[in-house]
Write a structure and sequence with these properties.
heterodimer; A: about 550 residues; mainly alpha; two-stranded antiparallel ribbon; about 70% helix; about 0% strand; disordered C terminus; B: about 450 residues; alpha/beta; eight-stranded mixed beta sheet; four-stranded antiparallel beta sheet; globular; disordered N terminus
């Protein structure tokens, strides 16, 4: 049959699908940086977009991006490593709780974190500056969040959770008998840490480092909310600013995007190199035996205090702040008498709120379903077949991970402006699909590789076709993974601010954009109330996720 | 060693091919479906006919001639337009003083033109019916949410036609209109923005973007070419937090905020993203001088958003005072209990801008748009809402004052904003970004 000859090209539809989602935005960003006038009225070839790099404002934006990214990594990673080591290797108090809290902290939206820290550390109305410091005798001392250090601090609070999860899971996967052997041979704790533990998790550490750098360069929410009033530009906010000027300067926005994209792509390529080399260091053993944990003795209290103050500052403090502002009228002028639960009812009256919530969730669910299905096919192709171009498929599907959201939205703006999709919510759906697919792939691949090939083979030996095997065996074994991927993509969609900001479908704004609007209009009580509700939803989704997918997703 | 069977066998040809073919079919179906969904979601592009008509309005012209004998050597023509903020007929006084030396005769001609303000009764029934057939009218504006809400309620109550409004800051409103128009999406009927933007931003695009039919509707301030009309003045003043500043502590005029005691206490608009803020800063510079501007910058103000954001920052106490912002935007949160208020000018003079209505040249609902504009100009229609909900000072006489605190009786216009657009605007923006420490 002629079809036999086409077999090796059967990967093409999938490749086309994925390529169609991932490639046009990148192409158009490159193309757009050379076209004057923007996507709506292209005027012709120009180098003007690159002249923007001579502007000192853009130069300080580039400088700030790098500084913030590097410094926050240097702060967050040691803290995350220490936390991870303490909870996996020692008998520090309450380590089970840390493992439960960290994944939830990971998925909190960046813009909510920024709002909360502004409410905590604003020089004029911050809770810590106005109430806490006077209480402990530091009257007159102010920590000002509106500065470079403010941005660095808040970004580090968002970095520690995922750094922790990667490092903790790496530490758990190493055979601890290496360290035990070292200790028996007389090595002191720190020496063992330095010479045995650390080299063994080096690949994970490097992967984590690069991830932190990439996500730092891509950060948008926090530099927008804190850097804006502080007048500290970064590359992503500069791209956004140029896109919303009147008239918009899409050309220079595209050229700056190219710079961010290049840096991110280089970093992500490096990371994938390390990820594949990681298997050389594999010491994964299926042994049930776990050596006893290191007893901290007199250090236990200090270590526990350290762990719990980190958790308190990074997780509990922001959440408490949200609740305080939601429950008390008229912050910052409120007193204890102003306690009220009304806001949780009255916030629903805010114009467009119900509609934006519906839009957000419907989009999230659609994207979740489609991206999960596509991810399933992609992962099956990559792990279970020997089709040609499967590594191309692999790379294409992971490509959007290296594209900052603001650049992705700019690319989609250019790519679809001449189509009837433009201005509707469907462009956002496509953009979220691009963004969610890599996460779906990452979530699914862990589950897929665990399935023994023998099961499929026996199915086919019994005469089942490929598709039958796929549905009846593979998918039946992966309900946890499928649901986990689905929920993860939903959460990623809900917390996104950059994509819906630029690709606004007017009249169907997303809840993240609405929250920002609320905040800008001075309704900080309502903003905090809505944020609390959002966070409760995300926490519930995360708990469901963990129950359904027993181990931690990024593990 | 047992070979891995699955590796050798690979994937079943027929099975995967089935999937591939079904994927292609599914893709085509999805693509067609998405296309249709896209067309359904996109509004129908309609070419709109231009409507011109004239309104009959009672106009009385009285001419009086007086003759006096004086000796002078100048010829001067003065035209004064007095906004009718008191309940007297609006007068347009043209004074022509002609002096002739030989023989020494002075001729004074006084022309009085009385225009009666529009009311809801003036609106023709055919217009209402035509508008009802269209069913809705779409408005983009920077007016406060409370006003948009109130206008929507009153309009729907009177005519049963839905007013779909969208509110954002001035830059975004214009941006959205122009972007949609250029992209071929004709959604908006009416746009309302302040005068400098009406003039400057659409200066080069008037004929493309706007329709001229508002020409036939009389208004105190009007584009001579008929592209926009204005019905109200938006006065500006400083906004302060009533819990943080006592009336004695308030500055009387904005230049006083350049004093170093206001360091870190001022909030205003983000000059790097809001072109409209640059227009006003330029006006302040021309009026108060560059040293005042530098003085403000030295006090390190918090700059974000356009006007609602600095007012919000005052409301939350982040800064106790702002540079001049539109008074209606102060009154909106104030009426909801926010601790903000405007700084009253000792001489009752405020900088002000006329607020302009413009109609899209490709408005999807032209009759409804015309009806809405007639409604909004009527002193017992929209004007009442604008004054009593938002503090927009009417230019027509005869508007019922229901909230005296919102009405600035006998208000004088201190100055209007200076026009600024295009490259000159960009240059000014960069200049201010340097002065205010954006780098």
């Amino acid at each position: 049959m002629m079809l036999h000859k086409l077999r090796k090209y059967s990967i093409l539809p999938l490749l086309l699908y994925v390529g169609f989602i991932s490639l046009p935005p990148i192409f158009y960003v490159i193309y757009g940086s050379f076209v004057a006038g923007g996507p709506l009225k292209p005027l012709g070839f120009t180098f003007e977009g690159y002249l923007a790099f001579t502007d000192s404002y853009v130069q300080s934006a580039i400088f700030n991006s790098f500084i913030i990214t590097i410094v926050k990594t240097c702060i967050a990673l040691p803290i995350a490593f220490l936390l991870a080591w303490l909870t996996t290797r020692t008998d520090v108090a309450g380590k089970g709780m840390v493992d439960t809290i960290m994944p939830a902290a990971l998925l909190l939206p960046g813009f909510i974190a920024a709002l909360v820290w502004i409410l905590l550390l604003s020089p004029s109305i911050g809770l810590i500056n106005t109430r806490v410091f006077p209480m402990i005798g530091l009257e007159g001392v102010t920590l000002n969040i509106y500065g470079l250090w403010g941005i660095i601090w808040v970004q580090s609070t968002l970095t520690v959770p995922y750094a922790y999860l990667i490092l903790a899971s790496a530490l758990r996967n190493i055979d601890p008998s290496n360290e035990e052997a070292a200790r028996i041979s007389g090595g002191r704790t720190f020496h063992v840490l330095r010479t045995v533990t650390f080299p063994l998790i080096r690949p994970a550490f490097l992967s984590c480092l690069i991830l932190s750098l990439v996500l730092g360069m891509e950060a948008f929410d926090i530099p927008l909310l804190i850097g804006g009033p502080a007048r500290i530009p970064v590359m992503t906010t500069e791209i956004y600013r140029r896109s919303i000027l009147l008239p918009p300067d899409h050309t220079s926005a595209a050229s700056i995007s190219l710079l961010v994209l290049t840096v991110a792509l280089v970093l992500v390529t490096l990371q994938r190199r390390y990820m594949s080399q990681e298997y050389r260091f594999a010491t994964i053993s299926a042994r049930g035996y776990r050596p006893p944990l290191l007893k901290l003795g007199k250090w236990k209290y200090i270590a526990s205090f350290f762990v719990w103050s980190i958790i308190a500052i990074y997780v509990f403090l922001p959440l408490a702040m949200l609740l305080i502002v939601s429950l008390f009228r008229g912050y910052p002028f409120s007193t204890l008498a102003d306690f009220t639960l009304d806001r949780f009812v009255s916030v629903w009256e805010y114009p467009m709120l119900k509609r934006s919530l519906m839009n957000t969730f419907i989009t999230a669910v659609i994207v979740g379903i489609v991206a999960t299905i596509v991810a399933l096919f992609v992962v099956y192709c990559i792990t279970r077949t020997n089709l040609k171009m499967k590594s191309l498929l692999d790379n294409l599907s992971m490509l959007p991970l290296a594209v900052p959201s603001i650049v992705l939205s700019l690319g989609f703006l250019w790519a679809y402006v001449t189509t009837p999709l433009w201005g509707t919510v469907w462009i956002l759906v496509l953009a979220f699909l691009a963004k969610g697919l890599p996460w779906g792939v990452r979530a699914t691949i862990g589950g897929m590789v665990q399935i023994e090939k023998g099961l499929e083979e026996s199915s086919r030996v019994c005469g089942a076709g490929w598709f039958q095997t796929f549905i009846k065996i593979v998918c039946r074994l992966l309900p946890g993974t499928i649901i986990a991927s689905f929920l993860l993509i939903i959460i990623i969609t809900i917390r996104e601010l950059a994509l819906p900001s630029l690709l606004k479908a007017y009249g169907s704004e997303f809840v993240s954009v609405l929250l920002l609007d609320m905040w800008n209009n001075g309704y900080i009580g309502e903003t905090c109330t809505l944020s609390s509700i959002l966070i409760i939803i995300i926490i519930l989704l995360t708990i469901t996720l963990r129950k359904v997918f027993k181990t931690s997703i990024l593990g | 060693m047992r070979k891995d069977l699955s590796a050798r066998r690979g994937v079943s040809r027929r099975g995967f091919l089935t999937v591939a073919v079904s994927a292609i079919v599914a893709g085509v179906v999805a693509g067609v479906g998405a296309y249709y969904a896209g067309t359904l979601a996109a509004p129908v592009k309609e070419v709109v006919k231009e409507i011109t008509k004239t309104l009959e309005r009672p106009i009385t012209i009285t001419e009086t001639r007086t003759e006096t004998r004086t000796v002078t050597t100048t010829e001067r023509i003065t035209t004064t337009v007095v906004p009718g903020v008191t309940p007297t007929p609006q007068t347009v006084t043209t004074t022509v003083t002609t002096t002739i030396t030989q023989p020494p005769i002075t001729q004074t001609v006084t022309k009085t033109v009385t225009v009666t303000p529009p009311t809801l009764a003036d609106i023709r029934e055919e217009l209402v019916q035509a508008a009802k057939k269209e069913g809705k009218v779409v408005l983009y504006t920077s007016m406060p949410v409370a006003i948009c809400d109130a206008l929507e309620k009153k309009f729907e109550q009177l005519y049963g036609i839905d007013l779909e409004w969208w509110r954002s800051d001035t830059d975004s409103v214009l941006n959205r209109f122009i972007t949609e128009f250029d992209g071929g999406k004709y959604i908006m009927d009416i746009i309302r923005v302040p005068l400098p933007f009406a003039e400057g931003s659409v200066l080069l695009r008037k004929t493309e973007l706007l329709s001229k039919y508002v020409e036939s509707i009389p208004a105190p301030y009007k584009d001579p070419e008929g592209y926009w009309l204005s019905d109200a003045l938006i006065p500006f003043s400083m906004c302060y937090n009533t819990k943080l500043l006592k009336p004695e502590e308030l500055p009387k005029k904005p230049p006083e905020l350049a004093d170093s005691k206001w360091r870190g206490k001022i909030a205003w608009s983000d000059l790097s993203t809001q072109s409209y803020a640059v227009v006003w800063m330029n006006t302040f510079e021309k009026r108060y001088g560059i040293d005042v501007v530098k003085g403000w910058a030295a006090n390190k103000p918090i700059l974000s958003g356009l006007f609602t954001v600095p007012i919000a920052k005052v409301a939350t106490g982040e800064a106790p005072i702002t540079l001049p912002v539109p008074i209606p935007l102060i009154m909106d949160p104030k009426s909801k209990g926010s601790p903000v208020d405007m700084v009253r000018s000792p001489d009752n003079a405020y900088p002000a801008e006329p607020s302009c209505w413009m109609v899209s040249s490709k408005a999807p609902h032209p009759n409804a748009a015309e009806l809405f504009i007639s409604f909004v100009l009527a002193v017992d229609g929209g004007q009442e809402v604008l004054l009593n909900v938002g503090g927009y000072q009417p230019v027509w006489p005869g508007v019922k004052v229901m909230k005296p605190e919102l009405y600035l009786k006998d208000m004088k216009v201190e100055y209007f904003p200076e026009p600024l657009w295009g490259d000159a605007l960009k240059k000014k923006q960069e200049e201010y970004m340097k002065i205010f420490g954006y780098h």
